Description:
13-stranded mixed β-sheet; Diaminopimelate Epimerase, Chain A, domain 1; 2 domains; 18 strands; 4 helices; mainly beta
Amino acid sequence: MEFTKGHGTGNDFVILPDPDGALDLTPGLVAALCDRRRGLGGDGVLRVVRAAKHPDGAALAGEAEWFMDYWNSDGSFAEMCGNGARVFVRYLLATGLATPSGGALPLATRAGLVRARVEGEAVAVEMRRPRLYDAAIATIGGLTLPGAAVDVGNPHLVCALPASLELSGLDLTRAPEVDPSVFPAGVNVEFTAPGEPVDGTDGHVLMRVYERGSAETLSCGTGACAVAAVALRDAGRDTGTVAVDVPGGRLTVTVTADSCWLSGPAVLVATGDITLPNLLP
Length: 281
C-alpha cells in the first residue's frame, strides 16, 4: 500500500491515496498504521478519495472533487481536522491531483465544505466560524478548570490556566475528565495561557491540547480556532487575528463575520510503500 507522511506544526498524518474508495480501511488498520513503534506513526490517517466515491462526501461532489476521509489514531472518525485539511491540500497540490481555481481549492469533509488557499510556504483553510455555546469544566491531575465549549465542526473545551500555573507543568498523559452530558461524543480539550504581543495580530495565546481519539498532540488546528475565538471574546471582539503557539509551532487564526481562516506550515516529509502482512497481527 502506498503512503505519504506529512505534518502541520507537528500534527502528523499518514496519507493514503485511494481515489476510487477501493481500500478496505478499518479501525484496526488505522490504529496499526498510526502506531509509532510497529507502524508508520501518526496522529491520524487522511484517506484521499473522490467525494463521489465516498458515502460521506457524495452530497458535496458537485462542489468539491476530493473528500478528506479523516480517522483518529485510535481508529475512530472525526468530523474535522484543521491541520489535517491543510496537509491534505498540500498533498493534492504536490501530486497534481488538484489545481486551485482563482487561488482557492474546495475540499469536502464530514463537517461540510472547506476552502483552501496557498500562502507561500503556508496553507490556509477556511472553516466555519467557531460557535461558543456553553460553559463546562475539565478536571485533570486534581485540578478543576472552568472552560468555554466551542463548536468548530467538532467539539472543543477551552480552559485558561490560572496565572500561578505553567502550561508545561500539566500532565496530559491521561484524558481530562469532562461532563459527558455536555460532550456526549467526547471533546478536544485545550489549555491556554497568554502570550506576549505579536505584531499584526489582535492577540497571542499559548496552547496545549488533548485530542479525543489521539491523546496529546503537538498541534490541533480546529483547537487553535476555538482558542482564538475565546481569546477574541475575552478581549471584547467579535472578529480579529490571533497567533496561537502550540508545541509544534505557530498557527495564525483569523475570525471573520462568517468564517474562520486557519493558516500555517504544511509539510510532506516521506513517501513509500508499507507491507500490510508485516503491519497487522
